[in-house]
TrEMBL record:
Enzyme Commission number: 3.4.16.-
UniProt GO BP: proteolysis
Name listed for the protein in its UniProt record: Carboxypeptidase
Family: Belongs to the peptidase S10 family.
Main location: secreted
An annotated GO cellular component: vacuole
Job description of the protein: Probable carboxypeptidase.
Signal peptide positions (record): 1-28
Organism from which the protein derives: Coptis chinensis
Protein localization: Secreted
Enzyme class: hydrolase
Amino acid sequence: MHALHWKTMVLVVALALLQPMLFIKVESFPALSDKITVLPGQPHVSFQQYSGYVTIDVKKKRSLFYYFVEAEMDPASKPLVLWLNGGPGCSSLGVGAFSENGPFRPSGKVLVRNEHSWNKEANMLYLETPVGVGFSFSNQTSFETVDDKITGMSHHFEQLLIDTRDNLLFLLHWFDKFPQYKQKELFITGESYAGHYIPQLAELMIQFNKKKMLFNLKGIALGNPVLEFETDFNSRAEYFWSHGLISDATYKFFTSACNYSRYVSEYYRESVSPICSMVMSQVGKETSRFVDKYDVTLDVCTSSVFSQSKIISPQQVTQSVDVCIEDETVNYLNRKDVQKALHARLVGVNKWTVCSSILDYDVLNVEIPTINVVGSIVKAGIPVLVYSGDQDSVIPLTGSRKLVHGLAEELGLNTTAAYRVWFEGKQVGGWTQVYGNILSFATIRGASHEAPFSQPERSLVLFKSFLQGTPLPEVF
């Protein structure tokens, strides 16, 4: 399907679906009932925390779970930031909040402070989405279908509409709980497959704002995002080769006989050709199962923080090795006392998991480009930052940089800040380039697919610059 036609259809149908729902009375509770007194094992902090459910459909008992931490200092003066993890189907609570940029990280039976938490700069809202992820639930065992107006639409377009609509409804009803944040500056950030979730949600907000200003959207930031399937996935071969993970001969094999996007397409359609199987076997043999593809320099625990990446990257022929003895985030969030403190409950599942195995999600959605949606957001005057941890071979920086540069050319945006280094402390934090003072690309030096996990200091500097709309530090 042509990308522009798809985008227009999604907007028209999503708007039609949402209009009547905006005026449906949804069961809500005062935010006070969602206030967290204290999390088990938590050190003393001065900021407030909230968590609980926002019901987006009373009749079908569809509820999304959130975790909200106010800014450390003077939350009234700080913006609101919505964080979404990818997958599809991975938890923003377990990955984003408790492994990456939230205020705490589990360590044994206690929580330790993350000294580079993003709530130093903003009020952080983590959403477990879609329904079925983490503590979010529905009384249905399978996803709904949308009404007869779009009966001819394929399943993955239906699901895209439902997820985008749910996320927008969540925010509207979350604002009912927290009206003091309704007019605040709003930024949406996330990583990986959120390269699909975030642009779609942002574009829907922009369309609603044309009728009535409901969202004070000020920018979106996408970390190592899936934006255009072939470009993103096929940049992996050059990354492997340039970092010494594969030989010259295998690089040639990997780019001519069967590239990575072809292999993934065949894999998801359960029709892997002999030539692709042979190529991937050779690539897997050389890259080694003892190198983490989401951080090619990592030689420590592969924990929950990497689970979201594995969803968008099919297992290679060789089996993976998990050098973790236990996953502390999973253990912590499955404790009954922790779930009670979070006002969370398990519905339809026996255990909280990092990434949902019950989602009826069409994996072929990954082939739908969203770079064009990013373009429409820029044209609407909303700043966009695409950033890349430069040690990630799954969605490598080279593909993301190429896509951003191509989009800038397509939109007629001139370079307003030439490609240069930026600093964190007395070290190079990465590289950056800005187009038209509205579209930016940046790398985070030494960072993995989950940049705030592997390079927290540098990620926080990038985040602060993004929120303030200021250039990344040029000197140390």
